[in-house]
Amino acid sequence: MKRLIASLAAVAVLGMAGQALALEKKINIFNGAQYDIYTLYLSPTNANAWEENVLKQGTLPNGDKVDVEVSRTENAEAWDIKVTNKAGETMTWIGVPLNKAGQITLLPDGQYNVR
Fold this sequence. Notes:
It is a single chain. This protein is α+β, with helices and mostly antiparallel strands. It has a single domain (25-114), classed as Domain of unknown function DUF5300 (Immunoglobulin-like), CATH 2.60.40.2890. The protein contains one helix and seven strands; from the N terminus they run H-E-E-E-E-E-E-E. The protein has one helix at 2-21, and strands at residues 24-31, 39-44, 65-71, 79-84, 90-96, 103-106, 112-114. The strands form two sheets. The protein has a four-stranded mixed sheet, with no helix packed on it. The longest helix has 20 residues, at 2-21.
């Protein structure tokens, strides 16, 4: 009986560890916006505020890409992306389906491509 309980406990711990690993999804964001990006914010579309700047490298040059992690605990079907350029001007992409994508290409005028 003790072996059964110990086995069940081990399975439960491994199951929780697997869930913890599945809580983050890596998304590749390609900068096709035609300017260098200095900050990059992600937030579920239904959120009232932007989350932290996820751009850790300082600048995302035009034509370059970065991998960011999106929380899988969010039930958001769509996300908003906000970036700033060197002059501090912002551009926003609304309703981007990050949970269903592996790569997002940010294009000028709030347009994007999903792969």
